[in-house]
Write a structure and sequence with these properties.
mainly alpha
Length: 253
């Protein structure tokens, strides 16, 4: 299994996936405080141009919260890019027939799937840490005196939500024949949660609650408001991962 994990990392490096993800997360991490910092200057530049049209622009006051607002706005984008980058992690191998050679050499399917999961989950964790670290560093540099409440709670919540989506990705990768089916399955799960979120009694239990990190920082939600969503999301992530291993172990490759 150790050798297969090493193979996964080498393949991600060789194909450029790791580099692309690093650049994407780094750029978005820099953009969050940069956009917040530049917003007043952009509005100032646009003021004179908009006067002729009869539109008056007010001044914008930015602080650390402005940067973290951008952080949560861009978080879905970096998660989507991660899903797209890994959507073919198994289906590509099915189509090329490379897994047959590995299985015939004696490596169990369980170890293959666990290696794939480890690569995906660790990559998300490390890249998300880069995204958070860069935003945190520049935000601290620009607005050092401003303190964000419940920062770790909100950031950790979104990380766990990402883990859930990636566990769905691994689950559908185990049973799908192509990338389209994998993405459709992941999208369907998210869509189901969106519709369920309209049911008032379900809101506090749904994983979508973990995307509301900004509400925690604004004081709208406290730690106790996330407890149910944390437990449900953690359980769903584990269950999806277990089913992914079990289904992959039974399918023909």
């Amino acid at each position: 299994m150790k050798a297969f994990v090493k193979k996964e990392w080498m393949e991600m490096t060789r194909t450029g996936r790791l580099f692309i993800l690093f650049v994407v997360f780094l750029v978005f991490g820099i953009m969050n405080p940069a956009i917040a910092k530049l917003t007043p200057k952009l509005l100032e530049m646009m003021k004179d141009q908009m006067v002729d049209t009869g539109i008056t622009l007010g001044s914008a006051k930015v602080n650390a919260m402005s940067s973290w607002t951008q952080f949560y706005k861009n978080a879905p984008m970096v998660l989507i890019i991660t899903v797209l980058m890994f959507s073919g992690i198994l289906t590509g191998e099915y189509q090329r027939g490379t897994l047959v050679q590995v299985v015939t050499k004696g490596l169990s399917r369980v170890k293959i799937m666990l290696s794939k999961m480890l690569a995906v989950y660790c990559t998300w964790t490390v890249m998300y840490a880069v995204y958070f670290g860069v935003t945190f560093g520049y935000t601290k540099y620009f607005w050092g005196r401003d303190k964000a409440e419940n920062l770790i709670l909100g950031v950790t919540a979104y990380w766990l939500f990402g883990m859930l989506i990636l566990s769905f990705l691994m689950l559908f990768s185990a049973i799908s024949e192509n990338v389209g089916q994998v993405l459709l399955g992941c999208g369907g799960c998210v869509l189901f949660m969106v519709f369920a979120n309209y049911i008032p009694k379900c809101k506090e239990y749904l994983p979508l609650r973990l995307m509301e990190g900004l509400s925690a920082m604004n004081g709208g939600l406290g730690g106790s408001d996330y407890t149910a969503a944390f437990l449900v999301t953690g359980a769903l992530t584990i269950i999806s991962s277990i089913f992914a291993v079990a289904l992959f172990n039974k399918r023909s490759i």
